[in-house]
Design a protein that fits this description.
The structure is a single chain. This protein is flat. It contains four helices and no strands. It has a domain at 42-127. With 127 residues, it is mainly α.
């Protein structure tokens, strides 16, 4: 009886994580790029967003060190750079003034945080 209970608990804990891992893209679950559909126009903005997304996913595929602090910071730097790259695409193509303001704020804040994170890594002797 104990064995069946343990197996049921294991299934409840493990199966959802296996299902979500299968949907992960480049080890970055939740940020996968949906497949291009025939209805989606391939505009310069779409191309720019797609390129920024692909670059971010590639650069976020870091070799994990086992140090949760270092791994978080090393993964967040390319994540923030991806936001900057997307914001630059928005500034090139967006027409809505609020979107342009958000894009400018994203660039400013993400660049600031990247600089802080790079300095933190340097103080830890990590690249």
């Amino acid at each position: 009886m104990k064995h069946r209970i343990l197996m049921a608990i294991a299934a409840i804990v493990i199966l959802p994580s296996l299902a979500s891992a299968q949907g992960a893209h480049g080890g970055h679950s939740g940020h996968s790029t949906p497949a291009q559909t025939a209805k989606t126009p391939d505009t310069p903005a779409t191309q720019g967003y797609r390129q920024a997304n692909e670059k971010m996913h590639k650069n976020m595929d870091i070799a994990f060190s086992g140090n949760a602090d270092v791994d978080f910071v090393r993964g967040m730097i390319p994540h923030h750079q991806g936001a900057i790259d997307m914001a630059k695409v928005a500034l090139q193509h967006a027409k809505d003034e609020q979107v342009r303001k958000w894009a400018e704020a994203v660039i400013r804040e993400q660049e600031r945080e990247i600089a802080e994170m790079q300095a933190w890594l340097k103080t830890k002797g990590v690249q």
